[in-house]
Amino acid sequence: MKKFNFRSFFGFESSATNELNYLKNKAEKSSDSCGGNCSCEDPKDENAIDTGALNKTVNRREALKFIRNTATAGAALASSSFSFGKEEKAERAGIKMDEYFKSNYRLMTDKEREASIERLERLSEIDHGVRPEIKGTKAQPNTLYGYAFNISKCQGYGDCIEACVEENNQDRKTNMQYIRMFEMENGHLDLEEGKADYTHMVPAEGHFYLGTQCFQCANPPCTTVCPVQATWQEPDGIVVIDYDWCVGCRYCEAACPYWARRFNWNEPEVPAKEINKEQHYLGNRLRTKGTMEKCTFCISRTREGLQPACAEACPTGARTFGNILDPDSELNYILKNKKVFRLKEDLGTEPKFWYYMD
Amino acid sequence: MHFLSFIKDSLAAATKGNKNFHLWMGVLSLFMMIGFYAYTVQLDEGLITTGMNDHISWGLYISNFTFLVGLAAAAVMLVMPAYVLHDVDFSKAVLIGEGLAVSALIMCLCFVTVDMGGPQNLWHMMPIVGIFNWPQSMLTWDVIVLNGYLAINVCIPAYILYSKYCGREPNKKIYVPLMYLSVFWAVGIHLVTAFLLAGLPARPFWNSSLLGPRFLASAFAGGPAFMILALGVIRKCTTYDIPAKTFNKMAMIITVAAQINLLMLGSELFKEFYTPTHHSLSAQYLFFGLHGHNALVPWIWTGISLNILATITLTFHKLRRNPVFLYPACLLLFLGIWIEKGMGLIVPGFIPSPLGEIVEYSPSWVELCVTVGIWSLGLFIFTLLVRVAIAVEQGNLRNPQT
């Protein structure tokens, strides 16, 4: 039986549902006109889709443009009168200004996205001496990512955590980690009893290991609560954050039942030589203080057809990542043939992360 | 222009006073400056300078915000009897009550702003230029109700005072509908703030249908308690006469609200501890400590003791009508509810974390200084508003041309 949903009952569709509707509309539209994947896409149409997804009128864009132009003119005036001396400093100030007044990622046109990426790459070059390649790869069609974790294979080595930190350019100063590895006593499946801060040799006798991260819920409570729609679910099921749009209220962190979100309490630090240059706008690009971030199933890798860093790094083969919609994927084999379970299913968040044992 | 001279005269009335007044404002200004300095430190280095972390991501700021929403909502307890039930005994206090609501709301907005990781990005929340996640996010509802309530509570007294300043009776057709609106709106601001927390299944400690009603009960006790204290000071320091009847009636309201609040506390405790489940762990941590962690235990028992003591005192007619008991009881109640809504509600909601980990919280000096600074700002504004209101009501502030 279908569960009663308060929000949809009262017409408060969740952003995930909005997103789905919008994608459906988009698919229909493109198949009507010229059968989808072609280069004749009208840029105006792109605008219409973007604004439609967020129920916004063009007013917003015009207002933004006005503010941005005024502010940029002001900044130019200021920089000409004060004369920064170094050209780079002035360039940086200009980039910062343009970045500050840019729109939410989902409202930008493809052109605006490209321009922003160009600016962000240059900014990283100025600030960190490293010019990354930031991608804006979109969700692939017919893809819904999922993850399976074999609790009888995991030995608690923690290679996944290390690989995750390196891949995702997480703050080394506060030792931020997306993955939490719990050492659980045999016979208990209560996280309350688990220890995440073990330092002894693993595997420990009579224990098993249970890794957690963002479970990319199908019904994520974190996106609903965001006051500015800075976080949403992508069509391939990945919940992402627009770091530049986030206001840092941390409501999403309070709403997550799996403690999967992390906040940049200080200016994050990654040594220049350790910066991973293969980046994605919605993934592992360098963040600034005061914003939220989270596991994105390594969006920078997986949208290019690679495995997430944690799955690749696991020495025991406990981690399986794949496409739920692909009937031949290993993930689907596991879901069909193993005894799988999920954490806190009673909350109805529908995590796309399953545990199983051999 | 009468209005310009109204502003000018009001400023003069609000800023002229005796030595004690200037000392009071001076001390508040000093605290405000200290708070401002602490906030610049926080802006510079990030929220790492606070005691918060990924486990306890809301602390003293949001605690105070939650409490102050209640203080603002409490103005309705004066407005409703005075204008809706036509109870003249409240008429002398109602403008002061609205002044309290305005200052409490400004403090609320300050507390929310200092809690933001990116306050410079708050324009993202503005309709048209930004994106408002309405009606999904309860936080956007809160932004609407708080700012709306602030607007109502600025407009009504400003209109009434300005009319009196010009020497004419304020038009009831204009302000009475707004008064009615403010009554509903006041209930709204506190319910929405409660729903902000109660809507999170990830935090079983807040995920209770009693949270909203309990917020209202505690607000209608704590808010008027502060009002009685403020009116007591006004009565002592100025020639503005507030009849004893006003005090008695307000004390009655406080008593009933405090009793209902205790009743609800009892019902919450029963639910948490008669058949304790995993969802009771936060309550267990708060009241008795969990796995050797018990930082909040002294806080909550102090808060509850203050609440019980004050409620018992207020329950006896003889004690309630005697200022010797009434004022201390109101002070205790105010403090008790501040603890209960602050350290006793927001912080334990985060302990243990959704994955069962226990990390404790204590505010840093930055948080403490900023908090004291914002409270000083609130009291500063409240003092100014009250002085203008009293000057107009007493007829000391009149437009000479009318």
General description of the model:
The complex is a heterodimer of chains A (358) and B (402). By secondary structure, chain A is of the alpha+beta class. Chain A has helices at 6-9, 15-33, 43-53, 58-82, 87-100, 110-128, 159-167, 221-225, 251-255, 299-302, 309-313, 330-337, and strands at 133-135, 145-150, 180-185, 207-212, 231-233, 239-241, 261-263, 278-280, 292-294, 319-323, 340-341, 353-356. Chain A is globular. Chain A starts with 5 loop residues before the first helix and ends with a strand. Chain B is built from 14 helices and no strands. The longest helix of chain B is centred in the middle third of the chain and has 31 residues, at 244-274. The relative contact order of chain B is 0.17. Classes of the chains: A alpha+beta (358), B mainly alpha (402). Chains A and B meet through helix 4, helix 8, helix 9 and strand 7 of A and helix 6 of B.
Shape of chain B: globular
Total E-strand runs of chain A? 12
Count of β-strands of chain B: 0
If you compute it from the alpha carbons, what radius of gyration of chain A comes out, rounded to the nearest whole angstrom? 22 Å
- Largest beta sheet of chain B, briefly? none
Main location (chain B): membrane
Subcellular location (chain B): Cell membrane
Pfam families (chain B): NrfD (PF03916)
Transmembrane segments (chain B): 21-40, 60-83, 95-118, 138-162, 174-200, 215-234, 246-266, 296-317, 324-351, 371-392
